[in-house]
Amino acid sequence: MEFQHELIIPNEGLPFKIFLFEGGNGNYEREKHWHTSVEIFAVLEGQLDFFVNKEEYPLKAGEQIIINPNEIHSIHALNKNQTVVLQIPLKQFENYFTAERFIRFKRQGVLSDEKLLSLIKKMYQVYTDKNTGYEFRTMSLFYEIMYILVKNYRVTEVQEKELRHSRRLDALSKITTYMREHYREDLKLSQLASLFGYSDAYLSRMFQKYAKVNFKTYLQDIRMAYAYRDLMNTDHTISQIALDNGFCSSRGFSGEFQKRYGVLPSEMRKRQSQKGQKTAID
């Protein structure tokens, strides 16, 4: 199966991730991938094309699409667009699971839900403006969105075929969830294999097959994602960020950071400071 597992890290202090789609300038393709989070793409301007389980869903301004956990999907954004993406970890829906770690939301083509679009747009504005009390307002909008999802779009009857497909990918997602919860620790492949009842070789193959990277690289990806978030959103020292996120030293962290981003963490932080606060959507 030629698709990758996407690592999703929530925004600092929030139980979800919200951001502007990185393909907003057009001429962009995101190849087949999957994740355990529920994902909503809300197009505010322009257009893009979604492919979910071999079905094509063209989206234009004012439309949204819901991507269910463990669904294989890709995105083609040939033209400029302004799209807000909301990613909600699966565990946020645990009180509404249809089966063990399973939930589905109906997708009858593309959605034109004005209320849902308005809430997502407003939540992004509030979160990026960061005015006094924004945390409370952001969460209140989030719960309104959650309410709409479980009330209007949740599917209560699913086919066994869907459950089987989800379970195949869920085996790895349980392990990656554990890794995200314990990434600061000295995790080893053999430790995880024993914990989840696999041999070292089988778990190693599972990462290569479904995540398209080895265990060590995936763990480093998690650590770097959280460290990057801390770098952009806190005033902690580089050394503290390194140690807080499972790196052995600030030197090791800085070297790995430079390999990935082309600059040292200190330079990236300086650029972020100069860039200033993101402009809110009009």
Tags for this model:
282 residues; alpha+beta; eight-stranded mixed sheet; 9 helices
Q: What is the approximate shape? A: globular
**Spans of 5+ residues with little confidence (pLDDT < 50)?**
none
How much helix, percentage-wise, in residues? Answer: 40-55%
Mean pLDDT: 88
The DSSP helix count reads 9
- The radius of gyration is 19 Å
Helix-strand pattern = EEEEEEEEHHHHHHHHH
What's the N-to-C terminus distance? 41 Å
Largest beta-sheet details = 8 strands, mixed
Strand content: 15-25%
Q: Tell me the structural class.
A: alpha+beta
Total DSSP E strands: 8
Helix and strand layout, with pairings?
Layout: E1 4-5, E2 17-20, E3 28-34, E4 38-52, E5 55-60, E6 64-67, E7 73-77, E8 81-88, H1 114-129, H2 134-153, H3 160-182, H4 189-196, H5 200-211, H6 215-233, H7 238-244, H8 250-261, H9 265-275
Parallel strand pairs: 1-3
Antiparallel strand pairs: 2-8, 3-7, 4-5, 4-6, 4-7, 4-8
Helix pairs in contact: 1-2, 4-5, 7-8
3D architecture notes:
With 282 residues, the chain is α+β, with helices and mostly antiparallel strands. It has nine helices and eight strands. It has helices at 114-129, 134-153, 160-182, 189-196, 200-211, 215-233, 238-244, 250-261, 265-275, and strands at 4-5, 17-20, 28-34, 38-52, 55-60, 64-67, 73-77, 81-88. The termini are far apart.
